[in-house]
């Protein structure tokens, strides 16, 4: 398939020939006037797939999440959010900087969920000393970990009972649905809003859809304008999103299988490995990370170097690419094991002797 095996992220995919054709042939209009037929079709289709009243197309997941938070919370109101969640940790503080929203941050547990007792305890009392808690925000998948419907249902019930709105960053919700062999409609039922990226596992070059009720989407449309995300002939990229929704959902299971094979092969090299959906995490000694990155790069395997190396499978990596990556990893670690001063069997990160 590709000469380069790019495991940095599932955002690196290039449009397939079928997707490019759909983009080329897209019927276009000016979406700021609401008359781009392809954008309108994508929004209608997304609303149907997710089981929401309405949908709105955004250039990015960051902007879609921020517009959602702004549409739920007034200036100075608060969102309960996990410390590891993208909207809190990796979106340059946009909710505070641009949204004037106060984050009430609680730790994500190892399975990615928030402890709902802790969520409930952190809801502010009605007292002018505190920012008023308005919203609970969750993420699924988080660090690749899929969060089951039973937990989501309990979170929705808590939000209802305590008068909060509830938002889901579902950038990779289709991966969660593939994992549980269910639909995104089932996983997202009861949420007031869901943001779902088309440009990650689904393989579009850009674009995210935000789902919600009619009134919420009307507010989000205004927020999108403020944030500079209203685009004109956006049908060119919406066509890729529509194509992705129709053609790239069922294949996500093969990304998960490739990730499982990658994890299995790395474990055979005695590496501590975790795998969740399309993500594999490998713990490495920090001082070996740069050398490994370089070794892989020379063999056209791309990774984002880190002591907790994250490897992501996607549409542009096939089973042969996974085997190539595994032999490059295997080569590095067997050379290291044999080298003077290299990695020895008593190194703490090795879980069993090298054979
Ligand atoms: C969970 C999650 N939410 C939101 C985003 C933001 O998406 P974008 O890169 O399109 O802004 C990402 C991007 O990696 C993400 O992983």
Write the layout of secondary structure elements.
Elements: E1 5-6, H1 17-24, H2 37-50, E2 54-58, H3 61-72, E3 78-82, H4 86-89, H5 94-97, E4 102-106, H6 116-121, E5 133-139, H7 149-161, E6 165-169, H8 173-180, H9 184-188, E7 193-197, E8 208-212, H10 214-226, H11 235-247, H12 252-268, E9 273-276, E10 279-283, H13 289-298, E11 301-302, E12 308-312, H14 319-338
Helix pairs in contact: 1-11, 2-11, 3-10, 12-14
Bound molecules: pyridoxal-5'-phosphate (PLP).
Pyridoxal-5'-phosphate binds next to helix 3.
Written description of the protein model:
- This protein is an alpha/beta fold.
- The strands form 3 sheets. A 7-stranded mixed β-sheet has the order 2-8-7-6-5-3-4, with helices on both faces. Strands 9-10-12 form a 3-stranded antiparallel β-sheet, covered by helices on one side. Strands 1-11 form a two-stranded parallel sheet.
- A hairpin with a 2-residue loop joins strand 9 and strand 10.
- The radius of gyration is 22 Å and the shape is globular.
- 47% of the residues are buried.
- Pyridoxal-5'-phosphate binds next to helix 3.
Which tags fit this structure?
binds pyridoxal-5'-phosphate; 14 helices; 3-stranded antiparallel β-sheet; 7-stranded mixed β-sheet
